[in-house]
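Example complex used in Figure S2.
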Amino acid sequence: MDDVRVIQIKESVFADNNKDADRLREQLKAEKTFLLNLMSSPGSGKTTTLLALAKELEGKLKWGVMEADIDSSVDAETMLKAGVPSIQLHTGGMCHLDADMTRQGIHEFGTKDLDLVILENVGNLVCPAEFDTGAVKNMTILSVPEGHDKPLKYPLMYETCDLLVVNKIDVMEYFDFDKEKVVEYAKRRNPEIEIIFLSAKTGEGVEKLADWILKNTKAWIEG
Amino acid sequence: MDDVRVIQIKESVFADNNKDADRLREQLKAEKTFLLNLMSSPGSGKTTTLLALAKELEGKLKWGVMEADIDSSVDAETMLKAGVPSIQLHTGGMCHLDADMTRQGIHEFGTKDLDLVILENVGNLVCPAEFDTGAVKNMTILSVPEGHDKPLKYPLMYETCDLLVVNKIDVMEYFDFDKEKVVEYAKRRNPEIEIIFLSAKTGEGVEKLADWILKNTKAWIEG
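Predicted assembly (446 residues):
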């Protein structure tokens, strides 16, 4: 598709990313835009979950998606086809986004009129968790085929996230996945983490995620 | 388990990792040890594939496994229980291994008497592909639930690898996974890449991977 806007992100020039992330949050607060940073392994179903959300959020708020990838623009194309305003950020090999890189996307996208922007970060459980993007909340998706032990192996991701979505529950019976253990391991990393089980493919549980997003967006833009 | 040896890896002091990787390969050549670097997303089945290999390789060569993880020692425990000499490398938050970090593992493990060492790298499709570990060959595992589009999104991983293993073919029917497309996309990144389809869970195809490993180990230690 010719109409996908692709932004080539430059490396950050700011030494203190945490302060820079706070500045971006202040800007988003003033503009009444809720930024949600979505992180996961490759192939856990980030884009499919956003597609499922599109149906649930329709007519309820103005939103858009920033798709970050090292290469390729397939995700932004997919979201655009579903009628969701989207741009593709190319990180030029970088394994994560920081606050300045996120700001470049926000600026190019033009998000002032949006209530909600979801940033689909690079598929990677390690590096994205180390960099505050300036998002108001962080969420991670763990898909059933990846196994329930991931919170043990990627601790920072779970410590950083406000919400864990367990995706692909429709294939639970074909995998050795223990729902109680994943809750136990995730809470061990972060006792405050909220957990939603869903299947982006069948739609089961997606309304719970939509409710969580609507509630948190409202709290941010009205708070 | 108390008997898992855990090595805390230090950051590399060498400026030129490529030269350092060549030095490590020379050492391994002199010691007649084949080092295979295994990379993939979290949860694609690296450890399960190594367990399946253990049965196929038994009695055919002397081998061991270095399990790299940010935290936790569950993988080395699993391999030790299966009777495979293993150590756990903790990267202290680092998202990849370079040649010097690999050498620290090789040194602590004591691999001179081994024909084959498999390095299970940190679960991450981005950063590990950027650093030559000193391995003789690189392989990556892509599991069916991750989707056939991954070679489009993580080009360097596929350019770097000699072998692509497509794992979890036993659940192929439950996912929208196109075998022909994954071959096409992987070869687009790397026309020389070899591809093996298998299920570490059922054992289907694992003998082909064992044959590939035996052939390449023999070529290295006798070449």
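Chain B has eight helices and eight strands. Strands of chain B lie at 6-8, 34-40, 63-69, 86-90, 116-120, 137-143, 163-167, 194-197.
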